[in-house]
Amino acid sequence: MKQKLYVKVLKYVLVVVIVLLFFFPIYWTLTMSIKPHMEWTSAGGRIYWIPNKPTFSNYTSLFQRKVSVVSPLASTAVRPIINSLVVSVISTALTMVVGTLAAYGISRYKAGGNLPFMLLGLRMIPFAAIIVPVMVLWAYLGFVDTAHGLFILYGLATLPFAVLLMKTFFDDIPKELDEAAIVDGYSNWQAFVKYVLPLAKGGISSTALFCFILNWSDFILALILTDKDWSTIPVYLDKLQSGYVGKLYGPKAALAVIAVIPPVIFGLMIQKYLVRGLTFGAIKK
Amino acid sequence: MAYIKLDRLTKRFGKQTAVSELSLEIKENDFVALLGPSGCGKTTTMNMISGLLNPDSGKVYFDGREMNEVPPGRRGVGFVFQNYAVFTHMTAYDNIACGLKVKKVDRNEIERQVMTFAKLMKIDHLLRLNAGNLSINDMQKVALARTLVTKPRILLLDEPLSNLDAALRNVMRAELKRIHLELGQTTIYVTHDQVEAMSLADKIAVMNFAVLQQFDTPEEVYLRPKNLFVANFIGSPTMNFLQGTYRNGEILLKDFPDGRITLSSRNRSQVDGLLRHERVTVGIRPEHLEVVDREKTSALTATVVSYEPLGSETIVYLKTPGGGENILKSIMDSDYRTELNTRKGLKFEESNLYLFDDETTELVMKF
Questions:
Q1: Is A181 an 8 Å CB contact of chain B?
Q2: A226 Cβ contact partners less than 8 Å away, ≥ 6 residues apart
Q3: A177: nearest CB among B74, B87, B102
Q4: Who has the most CB within 10 Å: B24, B163, B200, B282?
Q5: CA A277 → CA A63, A281, B78, B261, B288, distances in Å?
Q6: pTM for the complete prediction?
Q7: What ranges in B84-135 are assigned the alpha helix state H?
């Protein structure tokens, strides 16, 4: 049956509208980051859809220790960026090491009995529900505003998710592969490292990316548990305001653009694994 | 090359008993088939022999030495899995070499060995390819070569042919036989295909519901099945079974209201001596059941429901007059033709009958 012309047109219009809707915030952030002060405030009473006089001053202001109208903060964005990188990388690494081993144990040896299901339950508790006790505990331990205070919590928060996700990846790898290696004389550990891990690369890297993004973009935990030394990018973003102009949307947009870079690079690096077209070809069912 | 003794092996998974009190003795260089329907405990048995699973009770001996505490890698077994378990992220060469690498064999020696076995399996031209890109048949050969190259004393094959298509299966069956003759390892071969078991094995162990039913040569298993299960499982088409009651030298058959089998006096006295219960099942193989015109036989008649001309033979299916579900099969000559729904006589020799005790399902006697 041929579609009527107006149906076709309507379809494409709908597609275009949805695409615009999704891409507009990205476009707005990108352009905002290169607009001069006069264009990103509404002071002139005009909205600039396209930057009139593009400038990198928003970017440079983030890294200058100069108190001015648009850069009222005493600290630059350097430290938050470093903090975010350190905390996210370490917590992701922690989650992945512990999570991979746990997931393998659960998948192969049914370790922990009902633990996997309890992990799922853990995932359902919202952060807001636990943040007060965590705050008290962290204060007692002296973990507030420290790197380890953040990455331990991030590592714990993403662990259940990582374990469950990677368990399904390990379930997909036939256990005969490990067994074949074990019969050949490899130890359980060698079989895991040499033969199972390479096959699970795809699953492991996409899980890592997901955990990294969760940690990287966390706001609430970092806001509550850090003060000045270990503030991360999202917290610093929030602080970008001045009494004179209010929210500093230009520098905020610039920092947001910078913040997007690491996950994007990470994503591109493991792009070929993200497509789960991985044929675990050893099995022909 | 080793002889294997399994002593009352038992393995349970939760409440399910996978293998129960399994005892077997396998001679050096024998090719033994473990035959049974899926879920009967064949693979569990293999895993216990290889050491991948520890039995709950019972012992495994190789050459008289207890193996229960010996880890899989030190038992000298080779295991080819049903799904081959080829490492798809490596080349065929690395796959075959992996068992030697772990034993720290010298590199030149590895290369020599890999080439020898690749040639034996006729895959020496594929060694540089990624194992994931091989055809299923070549993967199978890689899996076999990888196992054989370590020179295992005992070769365990878990349904190695079941993933191949029919034509390749016949080719690989012949290959396996050739390789076994050439290398002579003690081999245990798991299969649910009785044709494979009959054609390859020196001895067949038939299993069902975790229990060993019979362990004998293929001929014995075929000619003298120990019980109803073995009789039903071995042979294609399957054996015909007729339930009935034995009384005074006569078997009254449930499916034939007016028919009975009267035993000769010599057999009668034997049955009287052996049979404990009066309810029995009579077994007869399709090749021993002949369909004839009604006038030519006195006793049993049945109605033809269909027939399949297979070229070399024709299988005739018949409905019994008792109206039960029991459909009898008869193998006739290739040119046999008949009209459907006609009543025919059934002819057979008394000497081809099997008599099973219905209560115990055991074979009472083969006449």
A1: yes
A2: A83, A144, A145, A149, A150, A232, A235
A3: B87
A4: B200
A5: 43, 11, 32, 65, 55
A6: 0.74
A7: 92-101, 107-120
- Give the amino acid at B317: Y
CATH 1.10.3720.10 fits A78-274, yes or no: yes
Between chains, do B102 and A281 touch, taking CB under 8 Å as contact? Answer: no
Query: How far off is chain B from A105, nearest CA to CA, in Å?
Result: 16
Q: What are phi and psi of B158, to 5 degrees?
A: -100, 100
Q: Which residue of B has its CA nearest to A176?
A: B85
Domains of chain B by start residue, with CATH: 4-225 (3.40.50.300), 237-366 (2.40.50.140)
- Per-residue confidence of chain A (285 residues) as pLDDT tens digits? 667 889 999 999 999 999 999 999 999 999 999 988 888 887 667 788 888 888 888 888 888 766 555 545 567 888 899 999 999 999 999 999 999 999 999 988 887 777 777 877 777 788 788 888 888 999 999 998 889 999 999 998 888 888 888 888 888 888 888 888 888 888 889 889 988 888 888 888 888 998 999 999 988 888 888 887 888 999 988 888 877 777 888 888 999 999 999 999 998 888 777 665 444 433 433
Are the beta carbons of A199 and B163 separated by less than 8 Å? Answer: no
User: What's the length of chain A?
Assistant: 285
List the single best residue of A179, A183, A194 to mutate versus B (max B Cβ within 10 A): A183
